[in-house]
């Protein structure tokens, strides 16, 4: 997983708050200790069987802090196998390779992971990078450990080529569906690799950081592992936005300098006094914001004040104490009611529970306050890592964290397999193409899964914000939703394009005719990958439904060339008079597409891509086929439409991707955003038409872009 990871002290490593600096400092010391111990272990022979090797003692210490009765012998055996199998391998920083699995295991141990997870973490690169086989892991450590190791093992690039990365993530997600600990190990693995990214080439740092931003950070958020998510955000921030990062770093340094008054500490002391006088046992802490959080607050509020660089965290014993603290704060301070959120009564989809409020400090500054129990805090930091094994409580595992009764919420019937993950696993099965899966995954993770829609026939649907009745139909009925005719929203008839709000009740109306199907316009209303993939597949299987009327003939061009596309076309008319030949506007073929020609009004010939729905229409109308072929010229002009979710910098990123792919922008238009979606239309000149698939793939890889296709030229 990490053969390309590098120097443990990188520029990005500075991207942390005071708390993070202390944690990272400890991590650096541990890395040095790991490196020394690993080197000694490689030269001095194995440790006696009755004690742990020095290199793993820090992992054992962190593990015992959460699981005092844990059996450490299995960790010793796992370390011995990992160290011996990785012996002689080194990271690009020059450190023994074993330092990486040890560091990943330490991250998970500090979060409270149970013994099986730590065992698999120590071994997570052995099957991929050494002679150790999966069967050997299974024989020595059992099926659970083998499953986790296999889940995080990359697919072979020699077998999948450019599709290796998306297919690796697909494999991991499928494995996560059965055991969420797979993704826990992957997140810790990526965190250590991001910490040690410094000696990689800048372009490779940027590529890894973008995948981390688009895929790993959203997964960490959805799995509730805030401790990993926040540090990953800061490391990505430092690599992809160095100027904004440096500005934020300077602001934090100025606000936390030795000569600066600590405004939050004064408020924390006041709050502590209020709670003691009310006889409420509570721990009041100042929780510094991480770099990205400070940056977001600065964008939201403009000039920052002392209290904007952190929040107060109040920890209590019981749920009832949380509300008691809230009552005292709202009584003794001026509350900002608009900032109050109750995530205890209504937990987030990632198991997060807390009360959020904000109060006015004596100087008028706004102070944000988080109120939660100690167990809630553990789950907020460690998320699913704190839940342990989905197969039952291990003997050394702590009691499960408190939370709502799973039976009361269909989205959390199994907290280790949340509803969003189940939906993701469902639609990925319908996306066999790696590019479609990769772009759909990024689009799905870019959405904020926050709304719950009530079904009229009982039950609930969890959907991304901005979802429509089309999305609800496919979420509830799968492919049967092809027959959907309309919907009732809150008891009233509504079009399928209706955007649903949190708490809406929806009833989908299905036709009894099995021949009914979606129209192309449904794609304009679909937000979820599940709906878009299902609709697209149906339209491809039923081209007559997607066929558009033939484009009106344009003025004659040249006898055998289309100047608007730049690609030569020839038609075999059997000694008949020459006629203009042009690409069809409905499918805009370019070399080396396989093409079929038909005569149209005015005597000209249009060339369609084979498979274009209009070709079937022409055949049914009895139109004679005219053989057409490409000439020698390989260059072409093509019009592409990029569908995306709106975000700052999107146009610049798309233009950069087009330029990097070697295409020239002839013209570009950007339609006004519609419900956070943006449509970009580009007319592009390519020197080599064979590069069109690579160009479209590069555009789809831009974060936020979920679809790129050809369209009618203007």
From TrEMBL:
GO terms for molecular function: kinase activity. Pfam families: ACT_4, HD_4, RelA_SpoT, TGS. InterPro entries: ACT-like_dom_sf, ACT_dom, Beta-grasp_dom_sf, HD/PDEase_dom, HD_domain, NT_sf, RelA_SpoT, TGS. It comes from the Bacteria. Residues 97-194 form the HD domain. Keywords: Kinase, Transferase. Residues 639-713 form the ACT domain. Belongs to the RelA/SpoT family. PANTHER family: GTP PYROPHOSPHOKINASE, GUANOSINE-3',5'-BIS DIPHOSPHATE 3'-PYROPHOSPHOHYDROLASE. This is Kinase.
């Amino acid at each position: 997983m990490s053969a390309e990871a590098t120097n443990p002290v990188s520029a990005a490593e500075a991207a942390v708050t005071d708390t993070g600096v202390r944690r990272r400092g400890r991590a650096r010391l541990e890395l040095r200790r790991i490196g020394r111990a690993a080197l000694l272990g490689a030269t001095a022979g194995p440790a006696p069987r009755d004690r742990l090797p020095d290199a793993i003692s820090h992992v054992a210490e962190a593990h015992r802090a959460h699981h005092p009765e844990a059996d450490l012998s299995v960790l010793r055996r796992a370390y011995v196998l990992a160290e011996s199998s990785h012996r002689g391998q080194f990271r690009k920083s020059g450190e023994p390779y074993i330092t990486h699995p040890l560091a990943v295991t330490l991250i998970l141990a500090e979060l409270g992971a149970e013994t099986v997870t730590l065992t698999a973490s120590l071994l997570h690169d052995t099957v991929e990078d050494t002679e150790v086989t999966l069967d050997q892991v299974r024989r020595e450590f059992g099926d659970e450990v083998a499953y986790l190791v296999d889940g995080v093992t990359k697919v072979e690039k020699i077998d999948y080529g450019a599709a290796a990365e998306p297919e690796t993530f697909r494999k991991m997600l499928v494995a996560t569906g059965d055991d969420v600990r797979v993704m826990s190990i992957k997140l810790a693995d990526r965190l250590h690799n991001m910490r040690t990214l410094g000696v990689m080439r800048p372009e490779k740092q940027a590529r890894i950081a973008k995948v981390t931003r688009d895929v790993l950070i959203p997964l960490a958020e959805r799995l509730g592992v805030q401790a990993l998510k926040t540090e990953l955000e800061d490391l990505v921030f430092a690599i992809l936005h160095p100027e904004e990062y440096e500005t934020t770093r300077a602001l934090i340094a100025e606000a936390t300098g030795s000569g600066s008054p600590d405004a939050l500490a004064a408020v924390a002391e006041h709050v502590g006094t209020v709670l003691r006088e009310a006889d409420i046992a509570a721990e009041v802490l100042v929780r510094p914001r991480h770099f990205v959080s400070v940056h977001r607050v600065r964008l939201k509020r403009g000039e920052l004040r002392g209290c904007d660089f952190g929040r107060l965290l109040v920890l209590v014993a019981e749920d009832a104490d949380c509300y008691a603290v809230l009552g005292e704060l709202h009584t003794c301070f001026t509350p900002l009611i608009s900032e109050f959120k109750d995530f205890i009564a209504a937990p987030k989809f990632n198991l997060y529970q807390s009360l959020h409020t904000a109060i006015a400090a004596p100087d008028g500054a706004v102070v944000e306050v988080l109120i939660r129990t100690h167990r809630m805090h553990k789950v907020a930091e460690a998320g699913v890592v704190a839940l342990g094994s989905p197969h039952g409580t291990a003997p050394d595992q702590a009691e499960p964290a408190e939370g709502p009764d799973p039976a009361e919420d269909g989205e959390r019937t199994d907290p280790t397999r949340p509803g969003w993950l189940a939906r993701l696993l469902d639609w990925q099965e319908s996306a066999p193409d790696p590019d479609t899966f990769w772009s759909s995954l990024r689009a799905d993770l870019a959405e904020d899964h926050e709304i719950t829609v009530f079904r009229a026939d009982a039950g609930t649907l969890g959907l991304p914000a901005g979802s429509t009745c089309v999305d609800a139909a496919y979420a509830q009925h799968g492919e049967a939703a092809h027959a959907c005719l309309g919907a009732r929203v809150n008891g009233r008839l509504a079009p399928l394009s209706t955007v649903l709000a949190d708490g809406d009740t929806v009833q989908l109306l299905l036709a009894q005719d099995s021949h009914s199907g979606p129209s192309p316009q449904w794609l304009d209303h679909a937000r979820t990958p599940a709906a878009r993939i299902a609709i697209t597949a149906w339209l491809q299987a039923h081209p007559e439904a997607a066929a558009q009327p033939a484009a009106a003939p344009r003025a004659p061009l040249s006898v055998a060339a289309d100047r608007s596309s730049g690609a030569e076309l020839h038609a075999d008319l059997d000694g008949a008079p020459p006629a203009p030949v042009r690409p069809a506007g409905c499918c805009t073929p370019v070399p080396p597409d396989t093409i079929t020609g038909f005569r149209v009004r005015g005597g000209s010939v249009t060339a369609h891509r084979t498979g274009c729905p209009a070709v079937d229409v022409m055949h049914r109308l009895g139109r004679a086929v005219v053989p057409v072929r490409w000439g020698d010229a390989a260059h072409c002009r093509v019009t592409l439409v990029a569908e995306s979710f709106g975000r700052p910098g999107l146009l610049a990123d798309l233009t950069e991707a087009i330029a990097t792919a070697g295409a020239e922008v002839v013209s570009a238009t950007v339609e006004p955003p519609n419900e956070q979606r943006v449509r970009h239309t580009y007319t592009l000149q390519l020197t080599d038409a064979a590069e069109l698939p690579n160009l479209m793939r590069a555009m789809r890889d831009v974060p936020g872009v979920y679809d790129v296709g050809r369209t009618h030229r203007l």
